[in-house]
Amino acid sequence: MTKRTLLILLIICGCIAGAKAQGKFLKWLHTDNDTAYIEEHTEDLTFRLYGSRKYTRYDIMDKKLKKDILYRPNTPSNIGVGVNYRFIGINLGFNFPFVNRRNDKYGNTRFIDLQSHIYLRKLVVDFYGQKYKGFYISNPEKIFEKEYSLQNPYPQRPDIKNLGLGMNVQYIFNDKRFSYRAPNLQNEYQKKSAGSFIVGGEFYLAKIQGDSSLIPTNFTDTTFLRNEHYYKTLVATLAANIGYAHTFVFKKHFFLSLSVTTGLGAAKTSLHYDSGDVSHSVGLLFSNTVRASLGYNSSRYFAGVHYVGMTARSRLPVPDTYQAFGNGNLRVSLVRRFSLKKPLWRNNALSKTAG
After folding, report:
1. Which of 279, 351, 41, 326 is nearest to 162 (CA)?
2. pLDDT digits (tens, 9 = 90+) for 209-263
3. CA quadruple 4, 5, 11, 14: dihedral positive or negative?
4. Do 228 and 248 form a contact (C-beta atoms < 8 A)?
5. 305: which of 117, 206, 209, 231 lies 20 to 30 Å off by Cα?
6. pLDDT tens by residue, the chain, 355 residues
7. Could you give the residue ranges of the DSSP H alpha helices within the chain?
8. Half-sphere exposure of residue 46: CA atoms within 13 angstroms, side-chain side
9. CB-CB contact of 243 with 260 (8 Å)
10. Do residues 234 and 269 make contact, with C-beta atoms less than 8 angstroms apart?
């Protein structure tokens, strides 16, 4: 047998093994819902009108002084429409000028925010891909002289930019009776109260950088961060998390859904100082992900508010100091579901699993 023939056979065997593994994985993902608790509408067309606002954040904290600097971007609110069918979901959001008129107050922010939250029956996957430029300080009254903060209510830093990339994957234990999809995708209807424990893992990479020090030079307390001034920070994190989620249903249709997970792991941080020096540290990471929803749900209609937010805190190389970064999405949705006489395409393993 020639080496070429052997290589071809190995490739074929690898493809067969991969296909079998994929089939087993898709079969494992499938759940037969307890119909007394969850009414499925993935075979319906789910149309929505929504308003949303995505955000990111960066905080610098001095635990010893009990002071912090809170950087925020000026992110717009969007109005859009969307549709879901089986495992496919499409949302189109538009930034209308009459909704967002705050550039004079908060400055101009340019950004790309590719947050995506995938809700399968056994798994929930959060993906974060963000690039922002243009921030302002949201708590100037706590870090500047009173006269300065009155003249500059929200000091702007158009030079500051951040880049973030991360993923969080969590397993849902009670997937037969608890539905994340009902309040977040609106293609299921949670008829009775139920909850579930959740475990998972996450990673995040972040870079925050300015043209000059991220610590304002006119900070009233010069001992903040031991008078260290840095213009760039790089963070890499890895953590495991655990939590609990529960949906409370009142009078069959009104619901309150809450979910909190806490993560513990490690973070590697690099600080680039104005002097040209660079310091590195490895320490504990604390994170949390919160999901909260409130509204009305039925077989045909949904109206509600839903929020997803992630925050992570890691130690800086300076004693008793920390930095925190996070992101999230707040959305209001009005939804109508339409039954189809015939499916748009033939069913298959993937649509059964994700739909």
Report:
1. 326
2. 999 999 988 887 778 888 888 999 999 999 999 999 999 999 999 999 999 999 9
3. negative
4. no
5. 206
6. 454 444 444 454 444 444 444 455 556 566 788 899 999 998 899 999 999 988 899 999 998 888 899 999 998 888 999 998 887 778 887 777 666 667 888 888 999 988 888 898 899 999 999 999 999 999 988 888 777 777 778 899 999 999 999 999 999 999 999 999 999 989 999 999 999 999 999 999 999 999 999 998 888 777 888 888 899 999 999 999 999 999 999 999 999 999 999 999 999 999 999 888 899 889 999 999 999 999 999 999 999 999 999 999 999 888 889 999 999 899 999 999 998 877 776 655 444 444 4
7. 3-29, 103-106, 146-151, 181-184, 349-354
8. 33
9. yes
10. yes
Q: Give the N- to C-terminal CA distance of the chain in Å, as an integer.
A: 46
What is the pTM for the complete model shown? 0.84
Six token digits for residue 64? 């010893």
Q: Give dist(CA 155, CA 136) in Å, integer.
A: 6
Distance (Å, whole) CA 289 – CA 138: 22
Other Cβ atoms less than 10 A from the Cβ of 70: the count is 18
Residue whose structure tokens are 């009078």: 251
Strands 156-172, 301-315: pairing is unpaired
Q: HEC string of 86-99?
A: CCEEEEEEECCCCC
Closest to 328 (Cα-Cα) out of 126, 155, 170: 126
Burial class (CB in 10 A: 0-12, 13-18, 19+), 336: middle
Within 13 A of 73's CA, how many CA atoms are on the CB side?
29
